[in-house]
Amino acid sequence: MKRPLLTLLIAASCAQAPLLLASAPASAQAVRPVDDASPVLVSAEAWRDMAEAGDRYPMFSEERARIQAEVDAAMRAGVDVPVPRDLGGGATHEQHKRNYKALAGAGALYRITGERRYADFARDMLLEYAELYPTLGAHPAGRSSVKGRLFWQALNDSVWLVYASQGYDAIRDTLSAEDRRTIDENVFRRMARFLSEENAPYFDRIHNHATWATAGVGMTGYVLRDPELVDRALRGTAHDGKAGFMRQIDELFSPDGYYAEGPYYQRYALAPFVIFARAIQQNEPERGIFAYRDGVLIKAVEGVVQASYEGLIVPVNDALPEKGIDSEEIVTGVAIAYAQTNDPRLLSVAQRQGRTLLSPDGLAIARGLVEGQVQPFDFRSMQLRDGPSGDSGNLVLLRQGGETGQLLVMKNTQQGQGHGHFDRLNWLFYDNGNAVITDYGAARFLNVEAKNGGGYLDENDSWAQQTVAHNTLVVNGQSQFGGDWRVGEEHTTTPLLFQVADGLQIASARIDTAYAGVSMVRILALIEHPDLAYPIAIDLMRADGSAPALYDLPLRFNGQIITQGFEARHALTERPVLGDRAGYQHLWVDAQSDPGVETRSLTWLLDGRFYTYRFGASAPTRALLVESGANDPNFNLRREQMLIRRMDGQADASFYAVLEPHGAYDSRAETVTGSTSRIRDITRVRGDDAEVVIVTLASGKTLALGVADDVSPGRSHTVRADGQTWQWTGGYARFDRDGDGK
């Protein structure tokens, strides 16, 4: 859902007089007198620039017109500040959301247009809140461990404070002393006290909820000229730096700007980080907040854009797959990052977003576009390290062909707190503008009140987070770490390889703690070959166990099955359920094969392109075609198909496969080309300390990928089989041979 008013008053101009001393102790004297009510989040000069911009910068004037239309509509409807009663998506919840958008919008419009009616509207609404808020206790609805007062969870109260404080700052100097005192005390101080004193443990968490809370309280501190509130926000309720906004920057971001909960929650958490940082920069530029930790907040903006495909964010962990870089939080981040860096690549992101902010940063974006400064954003292969020190795994992005070509994602990150999924060594694949190998994301209908009040569904725990819902190995029908995210948080994944070269990109990682007594290694490569129309993905998953086990390796694929390259028994009249726990209870079995050692294949069609997945294993396996949706009486789950490769009774296992995009189907012209795979077979050979995956092409040529157990660069490896020898030094090597083996 788009919320165009939500992102409007977020930034400030770069160099203004500081409000607080650099160290910002609680006892610091404000530079501005406490009776000064002029705006502190956006300078008078910046407001004048926006007022004088007129229609010279179309993106900015379009944003101004959009905001003005929405605020004018709110004014015609009249001030409505209801007693809270509803969950997310309910009438009162949505009204309070509309109100904080309208407050922010009215404040900006007053400063830009000079029309007093906007300031008066914001004043009248805030006086209504000043009457209501002191009467409120805990919200009457919801199951949140920390209930809000205006909303069912304190998180939403924090969001209200972040945006309402911006609107209030813009109109505060228009108020009488009495009205200002009433609003100061009964709205903003009370809400800041509720969030940071009455809920101190919540405020001091290292978590996105606390980020919103610290941002709201800190911005309120600037607006009210209260150094103690600002310092509480920056350094925690004990004012010792063990909590608060700065500690959150330290703990939640890696040196590469990767956010602990994953790209989807990075999108959400980005807004309070950059909004409050912008307020800090405005009032205390000597802190150098955007240079802090080598510019990690700017890196976070670029990182979340990199972790997208065709404008949609890679949906790992709890995520809604339809969320993209045009979300309000990333619009905010891109504008503020551009204003700080003048990086012309960010202008192309803003072009794709199609909007900007009603702020100095938004004006900078709009001006840069008019002046022709835009450059393409360089979507590229990269690894985003995870953890505060960058040693807690990584998210790998292997790209070929730019933004809409191929993208192979390998998820080797840490757990991701309570929003993390049990999916270490998971992978996804995008091609031709589509998600081909997919991730379910979260089981949630955001703000749809009929679906659990818009919150997470029970199926998020029973299905979406479970390992079998992902493209990674399941051992003995259990999820990784026994399905306990707190246990998962204690263990990291170890990256082994990340190399990008012409024609071959490769990544690998290992984890020894996801299952007791089982070590898992996965190698994924994106490879080009002259005989193939598009790059192919090679996948090798190894498990070394201490005892025989049941291994399941799922593959979530998107498209219409064309050919099933294996014999199987189909469930035509009944749909058996695959299991009774750990997500298996939500899977219907549509077809399954007998165990076999032969190479098998599956071909499907997606948006005019064919995909053939050819797979084998080191021991007999079954192939099962399944679909999600079983044991779902409320129809909460999407019906999505999967292939599961099952091996039973082995301690050690290797699963290998190749995914080949090929051909084209034009339904309008009724033409088909290249529907037959150009790969004839895939085999795997094991040596003493390495193995080789061999892809045989239809032309008779072979493409082989050798991968060593020890990836040290100086180690030599040899694998021999069927009269052929593969020798190399280092962690991996590629071998291209003609049909005669040369």
Automatic annotation (TrEMBL):
Transmembrane segments: none annotated. Keywords: Lyase, Periplasm, Signal. Residues 383-651 form the Heparinase II/III-like C-terminal domain. The keyword Transmembrane helix does not apply. Its main location: periplasm. It is found in: Periplasm. Residues 88-307 form the Alginate lyase domain. The keyword Oxidoreductase does not apply. It holds the Pfam family Hepar_II_III_C. One of its GO terms (cellular component) is periplasmic space. It comes from Brevundimonas lenta. It comes from the Bacteria. InterPro entries: Alginate_lyase_dom (IPR008397), Chondroitin_lyas (IPR008929), Hepar_II_III_C (IPR012480). Residues 1-28 form the signal peptide. This is Alginate lyase. GO terms for molecular function: lyase activity. The lineage of its organism: Bacteria, Pseudomonadati, Pseudomonadota, Alphaproteobacteria, Caulobacterales.
